[in-house]
Design goal:
The chain is an alpha+beta fold. Helix content is 56%, strand content 16%. The protein contains seven helices and seven strands; from the N terminus they run βααββββββααααα. It has helices at residues 5-16, 25-32, 95-104, 107-113, 122-140, 148-176, 182-220; strands at residues 2-4, 36-38, 46-47, 54-59, 66-71, 75-82, 87-94. The protein has a three-stranded mixed beta sheet with strand order 3-7-6. α1 (5-16) crosses α5 (122-140) and α3 (95-104) crosses α4 (107-113).
């Protein structure tokens, strides 16, 4: 049920790798890792935030008899989203650790803000060193800002790409289901008849006006 700091350091170096650690992290880990601290075994596979099994006495109400008992932490299995990893992490956490994560603003912020001497589990130290390494690599990347004109061009390019994909899918469906082109012919025929009707409309109006003038002259005579 107990573990030593040396064994914990060996396991951590084996998982993470000495080359993947940020400079100065290994020495800091050696100072902060406890040499002899009792931690329940299942706490090594989750984030418990200092909550572990506790022992005490259960005292009866009548005679005050004492009976040894233990209190186990409230452990839940949750999926927590990590922004640096861009995915969900399935981990076993206590309700106290969940409150600490919510207060910190997320799993990444909690692991970065919590000092090493409070990370008393293998999994907590593993994720803390891994996320610190990823944030260090992210800090070395160059950030490029685009002008509003370039952003508008990119947005228009994405729209054109979506339209091209839709047209390609439509053509593929037509080929798959044996598109005969009759609908296009009907649509073209309907457009032609509409244009013809539009052309005949002024002629009919002229004929009506001419007939009206002729009838008026006949009436006057």
């Amino acid at each position: 049920m107990a573990f030593r700091g040396k064994e914990m350091m060996k396991k951590l170096m084996k998982k993470v790798g000495e080359n993947n650690l940020a400079p100065g992290v290994k020495e800091q880990l050696k100072k902060c890792i406890p040499d002899s601290k009792i931690v329940m075994n299942r706490a090594k596979r989750g984030l418990y935030a200092g909550r572990h099994i506790q022992f005490g006495n259960q005292i009866s109400e009548d005679g005050g008899n004492k009976t040894r008992r233990c209190w186990k932490p409230n452990v839940q299995e949750k999926r927590l989203f990590s922004y640096i990893l861009d995915r969900h992490i399935r981990v076993k956490v206590t309700t106290h650790a969940l409150r600490c994560i919510d207060k910190a603003g997320g799993i990444d912020e909690y692991l970065l803000k919590t000092p090493y001497h409070k990370m008393d589990t293998d999994m907590g130290l593993f994720w803390k060193t891994k996320i610190e390494k990823l944030y260090e690599e992210l800090g070395k990347m160059e950030v490029v800002f685009f002008s509003p004109e370039d952003e508008a061009k990119f947005e228009q390019g994405f729209k054109d790409l979506k339209l091209a994909e839709r047209a390609a899918r439509r053509d593929a469906r037509r080929k798959m289901y044996g598109w005969s082109g009759k609908l296009e012919q009907l649509e073209e025929g309907g457009a032609n008849t509409q244009t013809v009707d539009d052309d005949d409309a002024p002629r009919n109006a002229d004929d009506d006006s001419h007939n009206g003038v002729h009838q008026q002259l006949v009436a006057n005579s």
